[in-house]
Amino acid sequence: MSFINVTVNDICDECGITKPTFYKYAGSKDELILDLYDVTIHELITDPYHFITSNTHFEQLIYIFTKLIRDTEKFGSDLFSQMLISNLNENHNSFDFRESLTRLCVTIIEKAQEKGEIQNMNPPEVLYRSIAYMFSGYEMSWCIKNGETNWEEEILESIEAVLDVRKEYRISRKAE
Fold this sequence. Notes:
Elements: H1 8-15, H2 19-25, H3 29-34, H4 36-46, H5 49-53, H6 57-75, H7 77-89, H8 99-114, H9 124-144, H10 151-163
C-alpha cells in the first residue's frame, strides 16, 4: 500500500494506539516522515562500533553514506518521495545539514586527507557539502525511478571520484 493510501486510522490500527495518542505525538501522517533522517543520524552518532572497527578513515565515511542509503531503501522510495513532495510544498528542513553529522564527516575527511587516503585537498567542509548534495541528487533520482536503480554503487563511485581516493583505499567495483 502506498503512503498516499494509508490513513491515520491504518497507522493507529497497525501501532495499536488511538487517534488521540497519534495526534499527541504527530500532527499528521506527513509529520511522521519528515524526521526520517534524524533517526538514522542519531543511530550513526550514538553507535561508535563501526567507526572503531574501520581500518581507514575513508571506510568510516563510506559506512556513514552506506547507512544512509540502506535506511533510505528500508523506508522505501514511496515514503521518501512523499518527504520530497512535502518539502517542495513547504520547507520542513528535512534536507538541511545536521550539525552533528556535518562535524563528524568533516573531521573524518580531514583525517583521511592527513593520512593520504583522500588526495583532494580542498577544504573538508567543501568536500562534505559536495558529496552530501551529490547524495541528495542520487536519492531524488532513486525516488523518481521508484527505487529501480543501483544507486549505492553509483554514489560510492562518485564519492571516490570527488574525493580523489587513492586506488588502494577504493571500495567500489570500478576500483577493481
